[in-house]
């Protein structure tokens, strides 16, 4: 876009500067908006990048420009500096796109008809009969007979004491001697 753009940055320093900052310097020096592809080519020229390197970082630079608050998209893929455009101008463009609000009242009548149908279909006598039948069935489910189940008495002798538990745990040496006793009987 501008062949006359000449930033005085040596190649070593250009490699250290982030691409988004180089894009800012290009736009600031040119003082005119750039199409993104042209801006990317200017940054690549300053850095001495090949076409393959450009294709590797083109999306990264676009993302950084999009996120950075110093840049503004002023048209279809046309980028400039935000400070070039007064705030009121950008607000007018947004507010002029506002459409009047239209309220659709046609479906409100349908809602009223539905409420009337509900009221016509409700019979309080039928509802009382249902509740009475429901209460009867609850009584059958929770009869007092269930609470009086027979519980077998457990004898105290059948319960294990802590002493019995200790007796059951045997010494491993005792296990070996018992195994020998069984092998002798064969």
UniProtKB/TrEMBL annotation:
Region (Disordered): 92-186
BP terms from Gene Ontology: DNA-templated transcription; regulation of DNA-templated transcription
HTH HARE-type domain residues: 17-84
InterPro entries the UniProt entry points to: Asxl_HARE-HTH (IPR007759), RNAP_delta_N_dom_sf (IPR038087), RpoE (IPR029757)
Biased composition (Acidic residues): 105-186
Entry keyword set: DNA-directed RNA polymerase, Nucleotidyltransferase, Transcription, Transferase
Transferase found in the keyword field: yes
GO-annotated cellular components: DNA-directed RNA polymerase complex
GO molecular function, one term: DNA-directed RNA polymerase activity
NCBIfam families on file: RNAP_delt_lowGC
Sequence similarity: Belongs to the RpoE family.
The protein's assembly and partners: RNAP is composed of a core of 2 alpha, a beta and a beta' subunits. The core is associated with a delta subunit and one of several sigma factors.
Described purpose of this protein according to its UniProt entry: Participates in both the initiation and recycling phases of transcription. In the presence of the delta subunit, RNAP displays an increased specificity of transcription, a decreased affinity for nucleic acids, and an increased efficiency of RNA synthesis because of enhanced recycling.
Protein name: Probable DNA-directed RNA polymerase subunit delta
Organism: Paenibacillus lutimineralis
């Amino acid at each position: 876009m501008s062949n006359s753009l000449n930033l005085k940055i040596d190649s070593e320093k250009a490699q250290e500067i982030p691409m988004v900052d180089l894009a800012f310097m290009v736009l600031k020096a040119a003082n005119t908006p750039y199409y993104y592809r042209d801006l990317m080519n200017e940054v690549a020229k300053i850095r001495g990048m090949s076409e393959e390197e450009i294709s590797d970082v083109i999306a990264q630079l676009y993302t950084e420009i999009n996120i950075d608050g110093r840049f503004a998209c002023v048209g279809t893929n046309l980028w400039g500096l935000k400070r070039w455009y007064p705030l009121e101008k950008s607000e007018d463009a947004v507010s002029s796109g506002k459409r009047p609000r239209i309220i659709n009242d046609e479906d409100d009548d349908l809602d009223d008809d539905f409420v009337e149908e509900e009221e016509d279909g409700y019979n309080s006598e039928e509802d009382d009969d249902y509740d009475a039948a429901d209460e009867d069935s609850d009584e059958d489910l929770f009869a007092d007979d269930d609470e009086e189940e027979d519980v077998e008495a457990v004898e105290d002798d059948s319960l294990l004491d802590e002493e019995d538990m200790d007796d059951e745990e045997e010494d491993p040496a005792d296990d070996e001697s018992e195994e020998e006793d069984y092998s002798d009987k064969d």
